[in-house]
C-alpha cells in the first residue's frame, strides 16, 4: 500500500517519533509519500531528521502557483469542499488556537489540500494519514473531500483536548476511516467528541521506540540525584515549576543537579529564575541535542523528570524507560498508563511544587541498587508496550481495513 502522510512542519526535532513510524512502515513493505506543509531545516541537528528532509515534499515551498493551478484543475471538487472549509473556519474564528483560525486561514488550508490531493492521486497513494488533530488533519480532511481518497489521523494531545470544537474535531472524526489515539486516555477524549456509533473507529496505536537503539540498559552513573528534563521549553512542560521545586529540595538534598535539554520561548524566564534562586551551579541548559546527545544525557542522569501540566504520552518517557532510567512525572493524560508509582518511578499531581520537591529528595536518597531495579522494570514495561514495529503493524492493519 502507498500511504500519503500529511504533516504540518516536518521533519522536526520534537517529531522524531513520526520518522520512526514511517521507517517502520517502509521496513514492512509499504510506500510512504511524505507531504509536509513546511519544513524547518535550520533546527535539524539530528542526521536522521536531515536525511528525512530530503525525502519530504514541502507544499508551501513550491509557491502560490502550484496551489492555484491545483485548485483550478480540480475546481468542481474544490467548490464542493468549500462549505466544509468555511464551516471549520467559522468554528475556529477567534479561538487563538494553533491549527484553527478563521475562514481566510481555512481557504489557505483548502488550497494546500487541493495540491495534496493532486500529488497523492498522481503518485498513486491509496490512503491519506495525518499526525495531530490540528491543521494537518484539516488539510487531510479537505484533501479527502477533494480526492475521494480515504483518510485517517493520529491524535496526540494536549492541544486537541483543549479546543475540540474550534478544531472541528467531531467533523474530522465523522469523515475519517479511523482515528488513532496514542493512549487509552486519548481515546477516551475522542469518545467525548463523536457519536457512540463511531467509537469502533477509534484505535489505540502507541508511539514507538526502536528497541535496537536500546539494546542494553544504561548503567547508572556515579553519585546521586542527577536528573535530566527533555523537551521544548514552554509553559505546559512545567519547567518553571521544576526550577522552583529544585530550589525547595536543594537544602535537604544538596547533591541534586538538573540538566534541561531543549529550547523554546520560555528559555529566558527559566534562565532568570535559575539566577534569581541561586541555582546556576545546579542547573545546566544544553539547548536542542540530536538523538545521540539525548542518550548521552540520559546516561549521565539517575532519572528523567517531567513536570508537565498537559501532555499526550511523551516520547521522552519511553526513551528514558528503555534506557533503564526511573521517571519522575505528573499524573496527566497517558503518563500513568506507562509509569507505575513505586515500581518504575514517581508520579506527582501536576502543579504540586512541594510534591515534586519531595520526590526529588526521595530520588537522591534512594540507593543505587533500588534505582537500578526500578529502571529495569520500566525498561521491560516500555519494550513490551511501545515497540515501533509492532505499533506500525497495527497502523498498517487499520490502513488495510
From TrEMBL:
<dbReference type="Pfam" id="PF13439">
    <property type="entry name" value="Glyco_transf_4"/>
</dbReference>
<dbReference type="InterPro" id="IPR028098">
    <property type="entry name" value="Glyco_trans_4-like_N"/>
</dbReference>
<keyword id="KW-0808">Transferase</keyword>
<dbReference type="GO" id="GO:0016757">
    <property type="term" value="F:glycosyltransferase activity"/>
</dbReference>
<feature type="domain" description="Glycosyltransferase subfamily 4-like N-terminal">
    <location>
        <begin position="22"/>
        <end position="212"/>
    </location>
</feature>
<protein>
    <submittedName>
        <fullName>Colanic acid biosynthesis glycosyltransferase WcaL</fullName>
    </submittedName>
</protein>
<dbReference type="Pfam" id="PF13692">
    <property type="entry name" value="Glyco_trans_1_4"/>
</dbReference>
<dbReference type="InterPro" id="IPR050194">
    <property type="entry name" value="Glycosyltransferase_grp1"/>
</dbReference>
